[in-house]
């Protein structure tokens, strides 16, 4: 058990984005440590990619101007300054890392962080750890980011930056065995730690006193549910096949829909329902 440390977390999502591994991990570590949660940075390109709503991008600009905020007990979240687009390019990356290091050093000084553990989920910022002179540096790999098919994230450049993150880290944690094997030659201290579940939270789905929300209670027939980000990784063809071959069933999709996700096969199907994003505390009731 890690206790009595100050932890700097470099995340690939913002604290109030869809709840994922960075928030889950840090909310647990915050029981015995202080955490500075660094939201994913934005750039001018963020207004056009559709990965985040423009309103959310504007809100992050305001948060950067306001400074860090306390979001939970022992957890402080900070929106970093805007950076240059195409962050995985080697030259651009060096400039962005300089910007981020200066900002991160100032924020952690204001928080009085010492004896820091640097916990990095973001493959795009090698060299950032030295801003806090960490006692331990962790690179936590939850996905093969080089395979994400966005034109502004060229695979070769993403892979090159991630290699640098792996080499400079004291410890690498991977959520998949294939991720471990692909990085084993980069660092001898690499470990497989699979994703888990919040049993205490999601176990409440089976309790009689957990009330089913009205908007999903009204769905007819058997209900097939999906909870998560709705993007290129979703097997839309499979869901469309199930919905059309079993019109007496209902398909409930809960989660944020990313722009440019091809959902044409599902649109207009009367038994497919999009619920949008929900807070993690609400999910057991939907389950």
What does this entry show, briefly?
This protein is 32% helix and 18% strand.
List key phrases describing it.
about 290 residues, alpha/beta, Rossmann fold, 2 domains, eight-stranded mixed β-sheet, three-stranded parallel β-sheet, 11 strands, about 30% helix, about 20% strand, globular
Q: How is this fold's topology laid out?
A:
Layout lengths: L5 E5 L10 H9 L4 E5 L7 H4 L4 H13 L2 E4 L2 E4 L11 H22 L4 E5 L15 E6 L13 H14 L2 E4 L2 H7 L6 E3 L6 H4 L11 H4 L5 E5 L8 H10 L4 E5 L17 E5 L6 H4 L1
Parallel strand pairs: 1-2, 1-5, 2-4, 5-6, 6-7, 7-8, 9-10, 10-11
Antiparallel strand pairs: 3-4
Mind describing the biggest β-sheet? 8 strands, mixed
How many structural domains can be distinguished in the coordinates? Answer: 2
Structural Rg:
20 Å
Q: Which superfamily, in CATH terms, is the homologous superfamily of the largest domain?
A: Glycogen Phosphorylase B
User: If you average the pLDDT, what whole number results?
Assistant: 93
- The CATH class of the largest domain is Alpha Beta
Per CATH, the architecture of the largest domain is 3-Layer(aba) Sandwich
Helix content: 25-40%
Q: Give me the CATH fold name of the largest domain.
A: Rossmann fold
Give the helix/strand class.
Answer: alpha/beta
Unreliable runs: none
